[in-house]
Amino acid sequence: MSKKILSFIFSVIIALCVAAVIFFTLGGTDSFSNRTNQEQRRTRIIIPGETSAEFQSANADEIAARADNFNIKAPLNDGEIIASAVNQDFNSDSIEDQFIAYRNIHESESPVYVAYIEYDEKMRSYQRIWSAPAAATRPGTVSLYTMDIIGDRSVCVILAGINGQGEHTMTIFRWNGQKQTGQTQDLPDSPLFVKIAELRIDGSIRIQEVPRSQAYQLGIAGGQSFTIAAYEHNPESANILDQTENIYTYNPEKMLYERSKVTHIPGSQIEQRRLRELLSGTPGVFENFINDLWYYVSPQGTVDNRQYIYFDPANRELIFYGEEAQQVFRWQNSSPTRYGLYVSSQNISVSTLRRFIDIELESLDSIRVKVFEDVRMKIGGSAAWDGSYRRAGTAAQTQEREANTIKPYISAVYDSPMGKFTFYSNGEYELSAGSVTNKGWYVFFEINGQELLELRPADMKNTTASTNNGDNTTRMIYRADRTRKDELENSPENISLTRIRLGAAGIQELHEGTIALTPAEKPH
């Protein structure tokens, strides 16, 4: 009986071994190998082994994390790196499609491409069926979104970003309606999307959205086309900050955006040498300039300390505070522009929320900010943050400086052991002691944070005090310490004068007694 059991077990072992050999021989190894190769290929696409100079300074971990978050539906080719992606059912087939923005880092000065990925039922997989280059070349500045910019409910994909010359760019592609309805079957080269606008300009570009009618919202009528505003330096002006506003309007006959209006906008007059330093494009210069807390300035010109932006380039962080809420963004990338800096950032709490900040110099103490938010859907201007900002320390420092500024001349009368001092606002003084009156000139000034008083008597012979300052000059120098008689801000001040010598070594004490000046009583 035991022999039969042993024979049965031996037969089972042999059968399992044979099955294993057949499995690995017929494709088990190949299947495992294919999965491994696919994983290796995917990793190679997301984190390229070779990077251009622009990407050598980028954080590889951040690039990989962004690529993972985009969840690309079709594999990229070798050397292509993802910049942005938008998912939506664009062709109304109840299957999600995808637009992606990517760049080939193996190509020098390669533009950023826009590609359309659609599900192919025959292949039973997603396929890239269309792609075209855009004007932007820096992936870190790219924002990709869709919008019915024309008002006819056609799909328009918009790619905005910066090119190699530091110019703002915007490229707009529109879904080819004829291609969609099959009317161009005799034109196989007709593209799936046609370009209706491509702008390159040294200033900023933005789409000017306007409210559309309720009929449009209900789908029973078309809507008004949005215009595009682009700003550039006024070539006819010597002031670097003078701008020209160009308005582009959609021409339905040509199916293109055309310039329809030009307006000249004067800029602030700033010391040109400092201005050129800030706007030279030198890495880090403008970042260091905005490294501070900036308060929002209302359209009425008042500073609102309840809303501010804090730029911290050293720690690669931006903090937005408004409506009693604080938002912290990670500083991902920044590119110099004609008028300032273009910053792309990512919310530290919501990784899908990206914010693009276009910063323009207004003056040496103020900037203009335009904010765009990208949450992988329609992107629009964040009006709550757009506007002028003033450096936080400027207003406070100005007020403090004005409060602490020592007035050189005063109009007041004081009693003292030397007699009655009368100070006039024209810089003259009188010292009356009995029947003797001495006249002269005075001035209050400051050295090393100490308030000093200089007296220059007109007739030194009749001066009761010592007239030598230690350097054979006919002047008397005192340190002036002020105190108020009570806590009221406008109450009279007592002044204590201590004689000192002022020379090359600075302030030297003479160890003489203090002279107390007290406000004289006004006659009733």
The tally of beta strands, per DSSP, is 29
Tell me the domain tally.
3
Give me the Rg, rounded. 37 Å
Could you report the average pLDDT, rounded to the nearest whole number?
A: 78
Number of helical segments with 4 or more residues: 8
Structural class: alpha+beta
Q: Report the sheet with the most strands, covering strand number, pairing sense and barrel closure.
A: 8 strands, antiparallel, barrel
Q: Which descriptor suits the 3D outline?
A: elongated
DSSP helix fraction: 10-25%
Q: Could you name the ranges where pLDDT drops below 50 across 5 or more consecutive residues?
A: 27-59, 180-187, 377-382, 461-473
Distance between the terminal alpha carbons, to the nearest Å?
Answer: 138 Å
How much beta, percentage-wise?
Answer: 35-45%
Q: Taking strands numbered 1, 2, ... along the chain, how are they ordered across the largest sheet?
A: 13-14-15-16-17-18-19-21
